[in-house]
Specification:
Layout lengths: L1 H13 L5 E6 L2 E7 L5 H15 L6 E6 L5
Parallel strand pairs: 2-3
Antiparallel strand pairs: 1-2
Helix pairs in contact: 1-2
Length: 71
């Protein structure tokens, strides 16, 4: 699962999400993205990547945008 989480982070970086933390535990995925907010399109991209790479259903996915501390 650790390799899958690292792999997801790399995919997100290629999609333009620079600071992403992915946690996979007990068939649940948590994605924390350094963004003030996410568009519906960005959420759909994250959901698509998680479901394709992990076989975890969207119902077991939590996406949390967080604001940068550098602001």
């Amino acid at each position: 699962r650790l390799a899958a989480a690292r792999g997801l982070g790399d995919v997100y970086k290629r999609q333009g999400f620079n600071n992403v933390i992915v946690s996979i535990l007990n068939d649940k995925v948590d994605v924390v993205v350094e963004r003030e907010s996410l568009t519906e399109t960005e959420i759909a991209q994250i959901e698509d990547i998680v479901t394709r790479k992990t076989d975890v259903p969207v119902t077991n996915l939590t996406i949390t945008p967080v604001e940068s501390r550098d602001k």
